[in-house]
Amino acid sequence: MKVTRWDLLNPRIYGLRVSALWGLYRRRLKYHAVSELMAGSGIAIGVALVFGVLVANGSVLASTRQTINSVNGRASLKLAARSSSGFSEQIAERVGSLPGVTTSASILRQSAVIEGPRGHESVQLVGVTPGLVRLHGAATRDLGAGARMLSGGLGLPSGVATSIGVQTEQPATLLVDGTTHTALVEAVLSAGSIGALSSSGIAVALLPQVQALAGKPHRVSEVLISTAPGKHNQVSSELRTLAAGRLDVLPAGAELSLLEATAKPTNNTTTLFAAIGLMVGFLLAINAMMLTVPQRRRQVAQMRTEGFDSRQVLMIMTSQSLMLGVVSSLLGVAFGIVLARTIFREAPTYLAVAFAVSGHLEVHPSIVLAAVGAGVLATLLASLTPVLDLLSNEPVDAVLRRPGEAGQGITPKTRRVLAIIGLVTLLATTIAVLVAPGLTVVGGITLALATFCFLPIAIFAITRCLRWIAREYHGGMLAMAVLELESAATRTVVLAGVAALAVYGSTAVGGARSNLIEGLDTATVQFFDTADIWVTAPTNDLGTTSFAPDMLVRAISQERDVASVRTYQGGLLDVGTRRLWLRARPSDDPTMLQASQILEGSASTGTERLRAGERWVALSGTLATAYGVKVGGWFTLPTPSGPERFHVAAVTTNVGWPPGAITFNAADYSRYWQTNDPSALEITLKSGIAPEAGKLAVERALRGDPGLRVQTMAQRITQFENNLRLGLRPLLEISRLLLVLAALALATALGTAIYQRRARFITLKEDGFDRLRLLRALLIESTVILGVGASDGILTGLYGHVLANRYLRLGPGFPAPFSVGGLQIASTLFIVGGVTLAVLALLGYLAAGVSTQLSSLE
Predict the structure, then answer these.
(1) How do 170-176 and 101-116 pair as beta strands?
(2) For a Cys staple, 620 with which of 490, 630, 660, 752, CB 3.0–4.6 Å?
(3) How far apart are CA 858 and CA 852, in angstroms?
(4) Is 629 exposed, middle or buried (CB count within 10 Å of its CB: 0-12, 13-18, 19+)?
(5) Is the dihedral of CA 653, 657, 661, 666 positive or negative?
(6) Helix (H, G, I), strand (E, B) or coil at 177
(7) Residues 572, 662, 621, CA angle at the centre, nearest 5°?
(8) Residue 745 above 70 pLDDT?
(9) Could you tell me whether strands 248-251 and 533-536 are parallel, antiparallel, or unpaired per DSSP bridges?
(10) Could you tell me if 164 and 120 are in contact, meaning their C-beta atoms sit under 8 angstroms apart?
(11) Any bridge partners for residue 536, and if so which?
(12) How far is CA 376 from CA 363, 370, 430, 458, 578, in A?
């Protein structure tokens, strides 16, 4: 008796063993490696996109949480200042004497830049007291033993020390508050001594030394407090009395809540784009598997005719899907880790402006399991479609009794059902997103599904029209192309689906990203075009780090090229879980409000009110919603002077800072924040003076002080835009990966489809069709497929683009004005179409030249 390959799985001979299942899959890979590779690639890329984003975003929060907890130790409360100027050290001393307080530790935080032989790093200079050691935090328990660091020098985490190229007992340059200092590095602290702090951007010294460096004698930023058992509420009440409405009483770990709230909108935006990528990858994998559906259906029919029951067939098909899904998902996880370490690690860059973030990659097992599980599920759903044939009474009914090629038919009922599902999905997505903008992430996924559902009926309608045209105009190859489209309906829909999803993903993601960049660029230009030259501290990317003006304003004003010098002020304010961006413009600034950023109210009226002062402010939309106020309304804001009420002159976008921004008149800000120190100097040059010449004049007035940075308006704009782009870099990379993936997937799908049709080409050549005529028919057929798929993808992609823009405006409050983005769509079509035609021309020409002497093909 001859043993066939199916006999290996016959229970009467070997039984359904794992080794036999693996042997069958190896045989499948031998003959269908291309289609399996394509399917696995779609799953792997989709898994990698979301996994990389989640790991990168989660690592920042997880490692920063570890850092904060390792410093706080047993502290449960803190008393914090509302401005960078801090509060009196006498108040901090009174905290330690409150009943119920067991330990208190005063801290002063100051933004700074540290320079060494290899470069410079932005750091948070932290002044500490011995009380911090008594809190028994994991990062501070060894500081007491490291007495050298607590004796007048700096302690640097090993990451910072390595970056700038300094070692123990070597000097480093500190740029603090516009002033240059030289400090000795007394200790380089590794993870063994300070734990997670070793990867943080900080520099540690004794409190008196930092007070002297920052020019803030007897001032502190916060006090960490440990309470006696059962005394937490009592101490909280005592602290609020001591604060007198001018300081904040917060949980010791409040910084993490602020960071999470700040990072959440951008993380959600990145996850939205990655989720679209995952769905596109998932559907591309389904489409890739559907190219193999006819062959798999014939495989199911053959197994049934050879005596295998339904359970055995299901076991074989499931085992193959599991093997493909597990391997593809694991590869996706590995690729996702690479993305998290490289591309997506840039996501938290903007956070370093306001937080001492730390970042080392943390891959939680639950994320790995979820990613692998999602990938395996996608593969199972994609590859088990042929199992539905087990429902028929006759083994070969579902394969042979359909029009067209065996296993390729799509019934009219199936077309109608899919179209209805697409319409219902589109309607449900619209309603859900209108009611809850936060569901846009889900909407991006469901739109990808709807994109595919519309294709069967669209292709049917197009082929009907083309059939009529072919009857009217004879002599071309259109009739043959229409015949091929109709006889291989499943393959036609699959190929059109790949093209549709390629264009959908690139249009939705790329369009929304482009609009976001355009909106932020417009806001940036309008924000900084109030001055020809800007003078700031080196770390002052948001304009929140103040410096002592001394005689700077007078010295600059005396330069003959300078027309005027104005003082800009700004800072950060913690309100609940939001760290707000405060911007205070002098009343004589050319522009008080950016017209393109107005959401509610009039730019002219709002500007007039801001110039007048008297507690008029402009509020970003997310804050207006949180406070429940509109233009003309009142709201209360905690200030260093105590709670104060302000009028809303206008409602704006967040101008790129997700938690929200408030624009003040500089006079009001000085009054309620009790400071006249600028965070920037705005300099207008006299008519005819070139920016570079004006910059040299200002640098001459500053006598080359490296503690301050002089930039032209163009340089300031470029720096700010570059920082914004670093934060949004994952969106660009997701868009690019989607486009590359889609183009490669379409090329692979075409190659697979052409390879599968070699037998058909032989038949046609035997009927008298030469290579060029076959190639012409193939080009017509592919143009129709690509045209229908691209049109479908553009329409749904534009709608997804609209929904994504709406989410960006209403959710995180980003400036993202909608524009169609014709150039971006055209480039997508050019790339996808170019790759398709190139592959088609090559493979089609080779396939059309197949020899008629081949009598059979595997």
Answers:
(1) antiparallel
(2) 660
(3) 15
(4) middle
(5) negative
(6) coil
(7) 125
(8) no
(9) unpaired
(10) yes
(11) 680, 709
(12) 19, 10, 30, 31, 39
CA 623/CA 261 separation, integer angstroms = 13
Compute the radius of gyration of the chain from its Cα atoms: 33
Q: How far is CA 645 from CA 467, 586, 589, 633, 671, in A?
A: 73, 20, 24, 10, 13
Question: Do 717 and 525 meet the contact criterion of CB atoms below 8 Å apart?
Answer: yes
Helices (H) and strands (E) in the chain, counts: 25, 21
Give the count of beta carbons closer than 10 Å to the beta carbon of residue 1. Answer: 5
Give the integer Cα–Cα distance in Å for 725 and 719: 10
Reduce the DSSP state of residue 496 to 3 states and report it: helix
Classify residue 221 by its DSSP letter. Answer: S
Amino acid in the structure at residue 386? P
- Are the beta carbons of 658 and 259 closer than 8 angstroms? no
Q: What 3-state class would DSSP assign to 165?
A: coil
β-bridge mates for residue 573, sequence order = 580
Strand, helix or coil at 584?
strand
d(CA 484, CA 486): 5
Judge whether residue 101 has pLDDT over 70: yes
Q: Which of 166, 87, 179, 183 is CA-nearest to residue 120?
A: 166
pLDDT in tens, 604-662: 999 999 998 889 999 998 899 889 999 999 999 999 999 999 999 999 988 778 888 99
DSSP-assigned states of every residue in 697-730: HHHHHHTT-TTSEEEEHHHHHHHHHHHHHHHHHH
Longest dimension (CA), the chain: 107
Candidates 121, 118, 107, 262; CA nearest to 199 is 121
Q: Which is nearest to 502 in space by CA: 280, 285, 291, 286?
A: 280
Q: Quick count: other Cβ atoms within 10 Å of Cβ 499? A: 31
pLDDT at res. 191: 54
For the record, the structure tokens of 512 come out as: 């929304």
Q: Which helix (H) or strand (E) is 591 found in, with range?
A: none
Share of the chain above pLDDT 90, in %: 23
- Residue 293's identity, in one-letter code, is V
Q: Is 361 helix (H, G, I), strand (E, B) or coil?
A: coil
pLDDT digits (tens, 9 = 90+) for 441-470: 788 878 888 988 999 899 888 888 888 887
- Taking CB atoms within 8 Å and a gap of at least 24, the contacts of 486-489 are 486/403, 486/404, 487/403, 487/404, 487/405, 487/408, 488/404, 488/405, 488/408, 489/404, 489/408, 489/409, 489/410, 489/456, 489/459
- Partnered with residue 103 across adjacent β-strands are 226
Question: How remote is the C-alpha of 500 from its chain's centroid?
Answer: 24
- Rounded Cα distance, 320 and 818, in Å: 45
Beta bridge partners of 664: 584
Q: Per the structure block, which two tokens stand in for 584?
A: 């205070």
Contacting residues for 826 by C-beta, under 8 A, at least 6 apart? none
pLDDT of 753 higher than 70: no
Query: 572: helix, coil or strand?
Result: strand
Q: Tokens for 749, please give them.
A: 């799908």
Question: What is the rounded distance in angstroms from the CA atom of residue 223 to the CA atom of residue 217?
Answer: 16
Cα separation of 112 and 216, whole Å? Answer: 14
Half-sphere exposure of 476 (CA within 13 A, CB side): 17
Residues whose CB falls within 8 Å of the CB of residue 550, separated by 6 or more in sequence, listed in order: none
CA distances from 193 to 155, 207, 483 (A): 11, 20, 75
- Exposed/middle/buried for residue 369 (C-beta within 10 Å: 0-12, 13-18, 19+): exposed
Whole-number pLDDT of residue 60: 61
Residues 6+ away with beta carbon under 8 Å from 675:
83, 85, 546, 569
| Neighbouring-strand partners of residue 184 | 171
Residue scoring higher pLDDT (404 or 742): 742
Distance CA 839, CA 800 (A): 29
Query: What tokens were used for 457?
Result: 């009926």
Which residue's entry shows tokens 């009611």? 435
Half-sphere exposure of 46 (CA within 13 A, CB side): 36
